[in-house]
Amino acid sequence: MTINIETAIIHAIVAQNDGKLACRLRPQPLNDSQALTHTIEELHRIYTAKPGKGYGFFGLPESETDTAAEVNTDFKEALAAYRQNQLGFVEFSSKAGELLQNELAKYDFAQGGFLLLSSYSHLADDYLFVALLSAKQSLTVNDDMELRQNDHLDLANLQLAARVNLSEWDADPQSRKYISFVKGRAGRKVADFFLDFMGCSEGLNVKAQNKSLMVAVEDCVAATELDKEERQQVREVLFDYCSDKVDQGSSVKLPELSEQLAQAGLDSFYDFTNAGEYGLEDEFDGDKATLRQLKKFAGSGGGVSISFDASHLGERVVYNTIHDTLTIKGVPPNLKDQLLRRLKGGD
After folding, report:
1. 300-317 pLDDT, tens digit each
2. Number of independent structural domains in the chain
3. What is the reported pTM?
4. Which of 126, 202, 302, 312 has an alpha carbon 20 to 30 Å from 61's alpha carbon atom?
């Protein structure tokens, strides 16, 4: 893994006896060690593999209509000062710790944790990684063969984390996607306080981008004379390309994807998307959960759940749009056995 760690530090947000949170600041960066390298590399790997991340920027949401609304710019200003060598990393991180403490104090559920900040580079980009880690108890056996309980950082359960692409921020301050963040299972609201302390707003909806990409491909395919097999081949190329990018931790690049689709028979896809109103960025992350619709049709409701490969539509599975019925030719053997047993029972 090609990661060059510039520096890293951990501060603790702890609950005091009166229930209030306090920030215990570390006075110097973490020592350069194998443990530090392993930790940052593991966090980078886990974070990169996280599906459905959100993307944003420093500032107010584009939909914000209240002209009197303000966004917390303290984190952005401190980070800019650090980048301009006006603040040391320790001073910047201490400011971040205090900002997070103040933000957490607004919520009853806040329990604190360990704020980790690391400046590192990967491939051609510089990053600032920010995460609030929690401790997890575990059991071990000591030299006397006695059970002993200890605490360790729960890296695998990374839920409150964000990463600033410093290179992109420097190159394009107007970008709306140089900050990525982990979205909770219920969406952005799970991590609202974490993004608020950074003054970050969501600017690019990855799921919406992937849905628009699929719509654009279907529209482009419909405008061609490709036969059914060729159209399905285009969908396969799209899914495989995007899946590979997700696995590699890379972004989907429309010009590059257009070249791949051209080899499958779909010409000028990039020009087609630019001419339409699809709102696609030239570069965005793939989302496997959304793109899986290219491979399978699935739905449920009213006690019925159905899922089948997209290639079966029109052959083994036929949809009648007039009568709103779905006909399945060749019922799966295990389902057929269950149906026959029930029918023999007189139901």
Report:
1. 998 999 998 888 888 899
2. 3
3. 0.77
4. 126
